[in-house]
Design brief:
- The structure is a single chain.
- With 380 residues, this protein is α/β, with parallel strands linked by helices.
- The chain folds into two domains: 180 residues, Response regulator (Rossmann fold); 136 residues, Rossmann fold.
- 53% of the residues lie in helices and 16% in strands.
- It contains 15 helices and twelve strands.
- The strands form two sheets. A six-stranded parallel beta sheet has the order 2-1-3-4-5-11, sandwiched between helices.
- Helix 3 packs parallel to helix 4, helix 6 packs across helix 7 and helix 8 crosses helix 9.
- The longest helix has 33 residues.
- The termini are far apart.
């Protein structure tokens, strides 16, 4: 009888210990979940080309400042890779993603993936046009996980670059895009055409813009496309390389130099080169817009605050943040830019932490005033 009682007590004690252990393990898991790092995915055309590496540099600095884990997927602006990148990042356990898509139609799949996986999403360097893509726009506006878009005024950018060429006396302008149908390229192209129309309406020295040819996002394709353009149009005196991350322009400049046209064909572009100062001095470049690599930083802050519960995500609209371009047309212009945007980042650790604590309207205000002068004032 005593032995039987001992066995019963032992079993009871073991059961108590198991329950206690399970509760303890459950409590530890909950605690671990609460302290889990936020993870934000970045879907980008390339994290290694000129513009992409600059974006990665500021995003890595923000992630470090805020103790956030960041994961990159390079998708090359290939549609199927863009849509699958959202699936990859969601499957990897990201709490949110920021994405630079190519065509706006891709965002249907991206947003649906984010909705299904309860992953917050924001676009950078892009926005869905309500006029051109009404279905995608409506889907984004109604999504509880689509936070918003950060983008530049690309039409204005296009107008300014064409005007710079016209003011320099150029008359026949060729155009090299990167991917046909790319949302950002279409807006820049609209700006180039508007710039030509406005100039010709008010000046006797008319200018002409040729139809675009597409050079992809690599230096090899950028070079071969530029060569083809020049061979077909030997009398052009200007070339707009619309963008593509920087490598397209590198290839185009190499083509111009190898064909003995350096200094004879004025080149303007968007996306600052690493050697822009030398190109401006040597006549390789006439002017360039850029300095906008902090655009994805603002998208990162939108998603970060949505995850934290600091920014409400509407189901009847989304945050629309306009990011300013910088324009450089001389070595002197570039020297000031390089000091505050190349040699160092325009935001330090404390400023990144402070930015993350801003309300959404205050974040938009901080974005709008970013300039060389703004950084200079913060460094005094």
């Amino acid at each position: 009888m005593k032995k039987l009682l001992k066995v019963i007590l032992s079993v009871a004690l073991l059961g108590t210990l198991l329950v206690s252990c399970n509760k303890s393990q459950s409590g530890s898991k909950g605690s671990s979940s609460e302290s889990k790092k936020i993870k934000i995915g970045v879907s980008i055309w390339s994290s290694t080309d000129t513009l992409g590496s600059q974006c990665k540099r500021i995003l890595d600095a923000a992630a470090k400042a805020l103790d956030v884990q960041v994961m990159y997927v390079d998708q090359g602006h290939i549609s199927e890779n863009v849509t699958s990148s959202a699936e990859t990042l969601s499957a990897a356990g990201c709490d949110g993603i920021i994405i630079c898509n190519s065509a706006s139609a891709e965002m249907t799949s991206v947003i649906n993936t984010c909705n299904q996986n309860k992953v917050y999403c924001a676009q950078f360097f892009r926005i869905i046009s309500q006029e051109i893509n009404p279905k995608e726009y409506e889907l984004a506006a109604k999504s509880p996980y689509y936070v918003g878009a950060v983008h530049e005024n690309e039409v204005e950018n296009g107008e300014k670059l064409v005007t710079i060429l016209a003011e320099k006396g150029n008359k026949k302008i060729a155009l090299e895009g990167w991917e046909a149908g790319d949302a950002t390229f279409l807006l820049r192209w609209k700006g180039y055409k508007q710039g030509v129309q406005k100039w010709n309406a008010s000046h006797s020295n008319k200018i002409e813009l040729l139809e675009p040819q597409y050079g992809g996002t690599t230096s090899d394709t950028g070079r071969s496309t530029a060569e083809a353009i020049i061979n077909a149009n030997p009398d052009i005196d200007a070339l707009i390389v619309a963008g593509g991350g920087g490598d397209t322009l590198v290839g185009a400049l190499a083509a111009i130099e190898s064909m003995g046209k350096k200094g004879k064909i004025a080149v303007v572009s968007t996306d600052f080169l690493a050697d822009l100062d030398e190109q401006l001095k040597s006549g390789g470049m006439a002017a360039e817009s850029g300095g906008h690599y902090c655009d994805p930083l603002i998208a990162f802050m939108l998603v970060y605050n949505a995850i934290k519960g600091n920014y409400a995500v509407s189901t009847s609209g989304f945050y629309d943040v306009n990011f300013p371009y910088l324009y450089v047309a001389s070595p002197e212009d570039y020297a000031a830019y390089a000091k505050y945007f190349v040699d160092a980042l325009p935001y330090n650790t404390e400023e990144l932490k402070a930015m993350a604590a801003l309300s959404e309207p205050a974040l938009e205000s901080a974005t709008a005033k970013l300039s060389i002068e703004d950084v200079m004032n913060r460094r005094k």
